[in-house]
């Protein structure tokens, strides 16, 4: 009788053990939590009227569409190049993490965000940056430093600008201004 109880006990233990493993496997492979698209060493080129406008490179890309707000995620960073009509790079942006919300058309860049306007010799550095495509603005509430030929400017509480960064406004600003003497 002890052997029968022992065997039944072992069988129940095995069933419970198998059930937990199956549940764990099902939780790990739920289709709605897996990306629809994933890729490594991704390069995307945007062309308008036979002219390259943008090139995006990323070590890793994942896209999720079976969620209320579909999005792209670049968990290992992103690098974006903007070109003029002569195929010269005129601006570039990089970060160690990026997220794009398709419905809101909102980019979020985080971790060592650097944006350069090569035509104006201007660079922006921050830890978080948003680009709202609908409103046509870029902004952050984090500390930002903007360096250009006129000096270094700091926005301790962030900044806001049009998406071309032609007109920008610092929040909680301070900086160093380079003044050229007249000859």
Architecture overview:
With 183 residues, this protein is mostly beta strands. It has one helix at residues 2-28, and strands at residues 37-48, 51-64, 71-74, 78-83, 89-95, 97-101, 106-117, 122-132, 137-140, 144-148, 151-155, 159-162, 168-170, 173-177. The chain is globular. 13% of the residues are buried.
The string of secondary-structure elements, in order, is: HEEEEEEEEEEEEEE
Global Rg: 25 Å
Percent of residues in β-strands: over 45%
Number of strands: 14
Number of helices: 1
Named at the architecture level, the CATH assignment of the largest domain is Sandwich
Largest sheet: 6 strands, antiparallel, barrel
* Helix-residue proportion: 10-25%
Question: What's the N-to-C terminus distance?
Answer: 109 Å
Overall average residue pLDDT: 79
* Spans where pLDDT lies below 50 across 5 or more residues: 9-15
Count the domains: 2
At the third CATH level, what is the topology name of the largest domain? lipopolysaccharide transport protein A fold
The CATH top-level class label of the largest domain: Mainly Beta
What structural category do the secondary elements indicate? mainly beta
Give the overall shape, derived from the CA principal axes: globular
CATH homologous superfamily grouping of the largest domain = Lipopolysaccharide (LPS) transport protein A like domain
Order the strands across the largest sheet as they lie in space: 2-3-6-7-5-4
């Amino acid at each position: 009788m002890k052997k029968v109880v022992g065997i039944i006990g072992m069988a129940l233990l095995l069933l419970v053990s198998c059930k937990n493993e199956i549940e764990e496997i099902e939780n790990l492979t739920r289709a709605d939590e897996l990306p629809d698209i994933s890729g490594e060493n991704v390069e995307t080129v945007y062309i308008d009227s036979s002219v390259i406008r943008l090139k995006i490179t990323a070590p890793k890309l994942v896209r999720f569409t079976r969620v209320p707000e579909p999005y792209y995620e670049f968990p290992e960073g992103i690098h974006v190049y903007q070109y003029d009509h002569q195929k010269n790079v005129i601006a570039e942006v990089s970060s160690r993490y990026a997220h794009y919300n398709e419905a809101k058309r909102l980019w979020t860049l985080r971790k060592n965000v650097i944006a350069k306007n090569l035509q104006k010799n201007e660079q922006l550095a921050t830890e978080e940056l948003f680009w709202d495509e609908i409103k046509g603005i870029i902004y952050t509430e984090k500390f930002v430093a903007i360096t250009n030929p006129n000096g270094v400017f700091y926005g301790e509480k962030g900044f806001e600008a049009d998406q071309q960064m032609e007109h920008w406004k610092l929040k909680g600003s301070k900086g160093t201004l380079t003044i050229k003497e007249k000859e």
